[in-house]
Specification:
By secondary structure, this protein is α+β, with helices and mostly antiparallel strands. Among the domains are: 59 residues, no CATH class; 107 residues, Tetrahydropterin Synthase, Chain A (2-Layer Sandwich); 33 residues, no CATH class. Helices cover 57% and strands 21% of the residues. The chain is built from 8 helices and 9 strands. The strands form 3 sheets. Strands 6, 7, 8 and 9 form a 4-stranded antiparallel beta sheet that branches. Strands 3-2-5 form a 3-stranded antiparallel beta sheet, with no helix packed on it. A two-stranded antiparallel ribbon has the order 1-4. The chain is elongated. The N and C termini lie far apart (166 Å). The relative contact order is 0.07.
């Protein structure tokens, strides 16, 4: 081999060794370094180095994962059968534990293990609750208990449970009618409570409206009486002033007003002495 060929080969080997020694770990990944197949250390995100041909790197997806479990048959505390469909959101947080507990980081092994534990948790949590509590109880509390219970065991897999949700609960045919009747009764109870609250609120509003009406009428009556009194006082003062200026003319106008009020209807009949003061001004009038 010529000298130039040897140098070229050496350069290629050096470049290859450098390339093989550089490892880039993204923020969305978890990675571990294996030395001769045995765990050595966990790699941090960014630029890392390894020994070529001796060290190997295994990477795992660190972003959120979903596991949709098949419907499982569970029993309530009264031994009533239920079909529960659920799903789990999780992510890898400990790459070393995940690698060692899943036979080298096999996703299928991790999901099978999680499914078995999910079934156990569903049976345990539903077994503590009656059918009524499952149907009308605290559903959020149930799922929170499931998430907490599963999360305590998930650390053994190196994963963190982000969410645990029950998508659907189906009832067996023999209990479906009783469940629907119970749901109907519960809804009717809630509706009656709402109606009672509505009636109570309506009565309060009506009572307040009646109170305001009474107050407004009383104020209006008082104001009307005051205004009427002021008007009567002005009228009396006006009459007195007119009488003081010309008593004879005042008597005459009062007599005319009395005649008009007395004979307002054509059918009115008045029996009175013709010489009475009532006809004083009529008797003084001269016929045309």
């Amino acid at each position: 081999m010529s000298k130039n060929g040897f140098i070229t080969l050496l350069v290629v080997l050096v470049i290859t060794a450098l390339v093989q020694s550089i490892v880039i770990v993204r923020d969305t990944e978890k990675a571990i370094l294996l030395k001769l197949g045995a765990f050595e250390r966990t790699l941090e995100p960014g630029l890392n180095f390894k020994v070529p041909f001796i060290d190997t790197v295994t990477k795992f997806e660190a972003r959120l994962r979903s596991l949709d479990t098949p419907p499982d048959r569970v029993l309530s505390s009264e031994a009533k059968p239920l079909n529960v469909d659920s799903f789990v959101k999780y992510r890898i947080v400990d790459a070393e534990t995940y690698y060692t507990s899943t036979n080298g980081g096999q996703s299928r092994v991790a999901e099978d293990t999680l499914q078995r534990r999910i079934k156990d948790k569903l049976r345990n949590e539903f077994g503590k609750r009656t059918l009524n509590e499952v149907v009308s109880g605290d559903r959020d509390g149930l799922m929170l208990s499931l998430k907490k219970s599963l999360g305590e065991d998930s650390a053994q897999l190196g994963v963190e449970i982000i969410d645990f949700r029950v998508k659907r609960i189906d009832f067996e045919r023999e209990i479906r009618a009783s469940v629907f009747e119970r749901m109907k009764t519960e809804r009717n109870r809630i509706a009656e409570e709402l109606r009672a609250e509505g009636r109570e609120t309506a009565e309060k509003i009506q009572a307040d409206a009646d109170k305001q009406r009474t107050i407004i009428l009383a104020n209006a009556t008082r104001e009307a009486e005051r205004t009427r009194g002021e008007g009567d006082a002005v009228a009396t003062s006006t009459y007195a002033e007119a009488y003081n200026r010309d008593p004879e003319f005042y008597d005459f106008t009062r007599s005319l007003r009395a005649y008009r009020n007395t004979f307002n209807d054509q059918g009115d009949i008045l029996l009175i002495d013709p010489d009475s003061d009532y006809f004083k001004y009529l008797n003084k009038s001269e016929p045309n």
